[in-house]
Structures are given as C-alpha cells and as structure tokens.
Amino acid sequence: MAGSLFSSRHYRSKRFLVLVIVCLLALGCSFLINASTSASSAVDKAVTGIFVGKAEVGGEDTANHDYYLSFTINQGKALIAVATLTEIYSNKVLVQNHTMKSDLGFVRPSLQNKQAWEVDVKVASDKVYGQFIVHGKGQDKKYNVTATRATGNAGLYWTKTRSENSTYVGGWILLADEREQGGGVLKDGQKSESRPVLRSQQIHSQQASLDENTILLVKKVEPSMIDSVDLSFPARY
Question: Is the pTM of this model over 0.90?
C-alpha cells in the first residue's frame, strides 16, 4: 500500500515536472520569437532613404514598356511608385522582416480585379531588390529589379499644383543619369495629354512648364514626406 502511494506521488511529481519543463520551453520559444521580431523591426525602422531602379519588360502584353520604380523608405514605412513614360502609380506599405509587397497600377477586369503590376522585394541598407510582376491574361510574368540609393538629382518627384481653377497632381521617377525618367500628371483627376520632362534647371527651380499657361510646382520627395504624398491615378475598369 505504501509502495503504491509512493509510486503514485512519484508519478504525479514527474508529470508536474514535465509540465513545468514544457511551459518553460514554450516561454523560451516565445521570448526568442519576440526578440527576433523586435530585432527585425528595429532593423526595418533603421533603413531610411530613396532607392530608384528600372525593370525592362518586353513582349506583346506589355507593349515593350520600360518601368521605372522608386522606393522611399522612412522608419519602417515605404512609398512604392512605378512609372511608365506617361503614368505613375503608388502605394504605401510597411516594411516587415526586410520585405515589401504591394500591388500597383490599375485594375483590369480580365485579371479578376488584379492590379496591372506587383512588386515583391527585399530591403537592404544599400539597395532594394526582388521581383517586378506583370499580371497578364492567363499567367503572371516575373522580372528581376534592383533599385539602388538615389544620388544627385535621382529620385521621386511630386507635384500638387492649383492653377486657373484646376488641380494638377502627378510625379516623376528619375534614374541617376536624369535622362531616364518616367511619370505622368493628372488634371482634375483626368490624365493630362502631356507632362514636362524634368531637367536640372526645372529641378533646381522647382518649377516645370506643363504648357504655356501652366507652371507646375515640383518637389523632390524626401523620406519624411511619405505620409503627405499622393500619386494615385484613377483606376481603369
């Protein structure tokens, strides 16, 4: 009887000890995961800057377009923009685990309400790199893209100008040599027939002529400006 009682107590003690060990292991894993997440978040928030690059995409579905991309990052937030020679689209996302994913462009019913393009990229201190995805009929095509830190006049530019009872909103993405650039302008929410090409003179004066009657005020988008910049174009249904 005494042996049986001792055996029962011993079993309960072992069971309790196992439960304690399991709980401690679970707490330890949770601590490691939280510590890893906090470290990742700290690194993500430490990256600040403007990165620009280009994805060269050819083929029937894309009309041999070149796509200009910019990533403006500040404290874990990012403004992603993609431009063609006549249009520019953007989206604001969070940098999570050194990664940014976002739909961009306009909605196409034939693609079941997908946006025209998508980016899936990694963030490093000196570059943003990954894939630029073109949504096509029946299949998606993926292209490599690398955006490096903008230097000199390279970067993302933005205008929001009120002139003669009309509002102009738009932007440009300039690569390092300034000659390679894309973007577009809306007039009262509709695509403008033209857009100025930004050159050093316009950049330094912060003014660009849309036509003989309209001067656009141009600003370079700094990381601290992310929340105030709007580059959205109307969706195409």
Answer: no
Q: Is residue 74 part of a domain?
A: yes
Q: Are residues 120 and 182 in the same domain?
A: yes
Instruction: For residue range 163-183, list pLDDT tens digits in order.
Output: 888 999 999 999 988 888 999
Q: What pLDDT does 169 receive?
A: 93
Among 162, 197, 193, residue whose Cα is nearest residue 181:
197
* CA-based nearest residue to 130, from 37, 25, 48, 53: 53
Q: Are 97 and 40 in contact (CB under 8 A)?
A: yes
State the total domains in the chain: 2
* Residue 173 domain boundaries: 93-101+115-192+216-225
Looking at the structure, do residues 76 and 133 belong to the same domain, yes or no?
no
Contact 88, 221 (CB under 8 A): no
